[in-house]
Amino acid sequence: MPSSPRHFDRFYAVVARIPRGRVATYGQVARLAGLPGHARLVGYAMAALPDGTRLPWHRVVNARGEISLRRDGPGHHVQRVRLRRESVRFDGRDRIALTEFLWRPRGPAATPSPGSRRAR
DNA sequence: GCAATGACGCTCT
DNA sequence: CAGAGCGCCATTG
Length: 120
Hints:
The chain is mainly α. Helices cover about 35% and strands about 5% of the residues. It binds a DNA duplex through helix 2, helix 3, strand 2 and helix 4.
C-alpha cells in the first residue's frame, strides 16, 4: 500500500507479542506502542489488516473485555471462535474476564514492590 | 478542504 | 452497571 501510517506498524509489532490464550485492550496496545490515548487508531489499524494476515488480531478487545466488532458482522463471530479455541472464555454477557485473561507484559507482576503504587 | 464516521477509552450522570 | 458526552485521529465522500 502506498500510504501506510508509521503508527500502524508499531501497533502490529505489539499485537504480535500477545501470547496465545491472552487478550489485550486497544488502549493497552496503544500504550505499549508508545502512543497512549490513541486506542482508536489501534482499532483503525486492525481494520486495515489484509485478509489472511498471521497477526493475532483476534486477541485485541475493548476495555470492557468485549469484542468491539459489530455483532451483525462476520468478523465478530470469527474473533469469538478463534478466542474460544485458545481457551479464552466468555461469560453470559459475551464478555471476557479481563482479571484473568488480560495480557500482563513485564512479568507475572505477582510481586508488587512495597511503596510502589499503581498510577491509575 | 470540510464534515461525517468509526474494530476506542475515560469521566460524569 | 448502563448511557451520554467529549477527545483523538485516519479514512472517506
